Amino acid sequence: xxxxxxxxxxxxxxxxxxxxxxxxxxxxxxxxxxxxxxxxxxxxxxxxxxxxxxxxxxxxxxxxxxxxxxxxxxxxxxxxxxxxxxxxxxxxxxxxxxxxxxxxxxxxxxxxxxxxxxxxxxxxxxxxxxxxxxxxxxxxxxxxxxxxxxxxxxxxxxxxxxxxxxxxxxxxxxxxxxxxxxxxxxxxxxxxxxxxxxxxxxxxxxxxxxxxxxxxxxxxxxxxxxxxxxxxxxxxxxxxxxxxxxxxxxxxxxxxxxxxxxxxxxxxxxxxxxxxxxxxxxxxxxxxxxxxxxxxxx
Length: 298
What we know:
Elements: H1 2-13, H2 23-31, H3 68-71, H4 75-87, H5 102-115, H6 125-137, H7 156-194, H8 200-204, H9 206-217, E1 221-235, E2 238-251, E3 254-265, E4 271-277, H10 281-290, E5 294-295
Antiparallel strand pairs: 1-2, 1-5, 2-3, 3-4
């Protein structure tokens, strides 16, 4: 009797959801309360580790960056991007709308690098908008007028004057050597005359030896001998000299002035020696050419 009353009391205390349970289930709950669900029926299976309940759907992957929209945008829009890059000192190429040129790709990459974004050399629509907005805020660079004063080219007179100045400097540097070479020749010529046709001058300059013999044969004597340097400079085998020697010859009361040009390569003894009439300018110039003389005198 007491058991029946106790079961009846327990049924009244259970929630409404438990009223659907059978008397057998109630008795089992009475005998083993730990094995009985407080909510009635079978306990729901636990959910995933996120907290139970229905599983959360996996996140969808982000779409790839859209570069095609900007690359295929109208030409004015593409040109504006290049103008913006130029305004930011990133680009100095032509404004032709070619966003795939090497210069434009490099400029876009530099802009992206400065912003700390991936450097790809292409723009998404949002990046293009940000680039143009940044360029619009950039200060306008003012091009200052040039302060350089154009210098007119030198006149022909100035050019000739400068050339003469350079030649004078070069000649002044060569003058001591040329004078020494000429004075050495004069000593040998005077020695030859003093020895009455004997000496190195006649041996080295055969034409001079013949000239002296011809004058002696007609009774002329050699008086004053004066040098005038014609040219001096480096040649292929040494320093070359050409000197005009003016002779004064006398025959009785008559005085004659004669001239020979002596050419040689400096050395002991002299090399490539020649003597020409002062009128034979072509022969003298040919000798200079043959010796590859680089004048320091003219």
